[in-house]
Amino acid sequence: MFAADQASRGLGVELLEQGEGTAVLRMTVTPGMVNGHGIAHGGYVFLLADSAFACACNSHGPVTVAAGADVTFVAPAYEGDVLVARAEERTRFGRSGLYDVSVLRGDEVIAEFRGRSRTIGSMSASTRTSASTTSKESR
Predict the structure, then answer these.
(1) Which of the two residues, 131 and 83, has the higher pLDDT score?
(2) Three-state secondary structure along the chain?
(3) How many of the other CB atoms lie within 10 Å of CB of 50?
(4) Which of 53, 54, 104, 125 could cross-link 115 (Cys pair, CB 3.0–4.6 Å)?
(5) Is the predicted pLDDT of residue 138 greater than 60, yes or no?
(6) Per-residue pLDDT band at 1 (split at 50, 70, 90)
(7) How many Å apart are CA 125 and CA 129, to the nearest integer?
(8) Best CA proximity match to 89, nearest among 51, 48, 53
(9) Region for 42 from its dihedrals, namely left if φ exceeds 0, alpha if ψ lies in -120 to 50, beta otherwise
């Protein structure tokens, strides 16, 4: 799945490790990721954590997507910082799961992320088309 993730890979995110329900990814904060306060934009930190979450929850095989996620920003990251996201499965129940991701700069916690997953099976072209055209009323 990560090999086809153009969004993450295009930003220089690297998959370092992946196991059953776990993943470790790395990203360097570039000048284009820094906001007007001179710190890494939270959206990029979230993207790194979300990508680690996606790798961990898809490690079991069936197509699994995010049902929701929360992030708590603990400390700022800066241009040139190398961030590592460590994702770990907490539990799976039915088609759902909970995953925690810590985003670190060295040993310092930058952000904590909790993702909620949902297994949907396979993602064929017809599934993508019908999912994108599903009306608000039918959800």
Answers:
(1) 83
(2) CHHHCHHHHHCCCEEEEEECCEEEEEEECCHHHECCCCCECHHHHHHHHHHHHHHHHCCCCCEEEEEEEEEEECCCCCCCCEEEEEEEEEEEECCEEEEEEEEEECCEEEEEEEEEEEEEECCCHHHHHHHHHCCHHHC
(3) 22
(4) 53
(5) no
(6) confident
(7) 6
(8) 53
(9) alpha
- What is the band of 123 on the pLDDT scale with cuts at 50, 70, 90? low
Mean pLDDT of 98-121: 97
Tokens 């064929």 sit on residue: 124
Q: Is the dihedral of CA 77, 53, 101, 66 positive or negative?
A: positive
Q: Are 28 and 12 in contact (CB under 8 A)?
A: yes
Phi, psi (deg, nearest 5) at residue 109: -75, 125
Identify whether the C-beta of residue 34 lies closer than 8 Å to the C-beta of residue 41. yes
